[in-house]
């Protein structure tokens, strides 16, 4: 996992599998990122090869923890396993999904 900051937004890049065994690492990364109180937290899943319900739960928790202070966004590759898991479960109704990190970082903070 790596972090990048840009104009009040923070991007968290995640790679590999996000499942029951690794979701705690994502939780730790998200918690540390939210502690910095960015206006926008972008969770980039473009390098994620597998995302199960544990990972989806972390995304929902990130959205809830961000509250009114931090807008949480997710970046996925269309037709990837992560993208399909997010859209099939309706998570995209909770957290805005983008296909490019630059677009997620540049979008209106209230979106």
Q: What report would you give on this structure?
A:
Strands 1-2-3-4-5 form a 5-stranded mixed beta sheet. It has helices spanning 23-35, 53-66, 81-88, 101-106, and strands spanning 2-6, 9-18, 40-51, 71-75, 97-98. It has 111 residues and is an alpha/beta fold. The protein is globular and about 30 Å long. It is built from 4 helices and 5 strands. 37% of the residues lie in helices and 31% in strands.
Put the structure in a nutshell.
This protein is an alpha/beta fold and 111 residues long.
Main beta-sheet annotation: 5 strands, mixed
Backbone CA Rg: 12 Å
Strand fraction: 25-35%
Q: Categorize the overall geometry.
A: globular
> What is the string of helix and strand elements?
EEHEHEHEH
The total of helices stands at 4
- Strands of the biggest beta sheet: in what spatial order? 1-2-3-4-5
Would you tell me the overall average pLDDT?
91
Helix content: 25-40%
Structural class determined from secondary elements: alpha/beta
How far apart the termini lie comes to 24 Å
Uncertain runs are none
Number of strands: 5
Offer a few descriptive terms.
alpha/beta, five-stranded mixed β-sheet
Provide the fold topology.
Layout: E1 2-6, E2 9-18, H1 23-35, E3 40-51, H2 53-66, E4 71-75, H3 81-88, E5 97-98, H4 101-106
Parallel strand pairs: 2-3, 3-4, 4-5
Antiparallel strand pairs: 1-2
Helix pairs in contact: 1-2
């Amino acid at each position: 996992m790596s972090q990048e900051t840009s104009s009040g937004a923070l991007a968290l890049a995640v790679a590999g599998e996000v499942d029951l065994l690794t979701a705690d690492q994502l939780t730790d990364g998200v918690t540390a990122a939210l502690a910095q109180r960015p206006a926008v937290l972008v969770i980039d899943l473009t390098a994620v090869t597998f995302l199960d319900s544990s990972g989806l739960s972390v995304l929902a928790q990130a959205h809830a923890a961000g509250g009114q202070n931090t807008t949480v966004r997710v970046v996925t590759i269309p037709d990837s396993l992560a993208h399909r898991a997010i859209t099939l479960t309706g998570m995209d109704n909770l957290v805005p999904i983008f296909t490019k990190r630059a677009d997620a970082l540049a979008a209106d903070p209230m979106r």
